[in-house]
Structure formats: structure tokens, C-alpha cells
What we know:
Radius of gyration: 18 Å
Number of helices: 2
CATH topology: HIV Type 1 Reverse Transcriptase, Chain A, domain 1
Structural class: alpha/beta
Number of strands: 5
Amino acid sequence: MLRRPLYTASLKTRKEIEKHVNQLLDMEVIRKIGNNEIVKFTTPVLITWCYGKCRLFGDFKALNNYTKADRYPIPRIPHALDKLAKAKYITKMDFMKGFHQNGFKPNSINLLRIICHMGIYE
């Protein structure tokens, strides 16, 4: 069982967390966990600021102790650029919300629960 407490946040950061969480709820990417559900794993959410914009993310470092590393490496950037140079068509995609389109096995969703001042979500 790894139930980490939420991080303290300033009022400004809390408002941003609320904005992001509500956006994810509206997109039906996350759902709020009921008060009666047993929660064995939570990870706190953080906000990172860059150039006046912020981004919400979960601190899942502790989860690494419970998972196996992938055996296939990420391609090196020069190799990827070499392949891209020979391409006839190039597609530009917005990956800011792309993470939320990943599918997860039903038995692993409970490991991806986040906690903030608004509650626990998966």
C-alpha cells in the first residue's frame, strides 16, 4: 500500500489545479473516487510553471518501485531525424493532451490515482 499525502499548494496553484481537474472531468478523462472506495495507492499532483503557463502532473516516482522497466529503448533523436528527413509528408500533432488518450489495463487504473485538495481521482 502506497498512499502518499497531497502536497501543500498556494491559493494561486490551487485555483490552477481546480481548473485542470475540472477540465479533465469535463473531458471524461478522470473520475472522482467515492468516499466508500478503498484506495491503496495515490500520488500527489503538482503544477509546474513555465512562461506564465502551468501544467498539471502527477508525481509517480514512487510507482517505479512496483513496476518493471520496458525492455525497448526510446529511439535516439538523430536517428529519428534521419528518418524524418526522407519523409514525403509530415504530420504535426498536439501532444499536450495526448497522454490522456492512452489506454490502460483495468487492473492498473487504480495505480494511477491522483490526490489533490479537491479529492482523489482516477
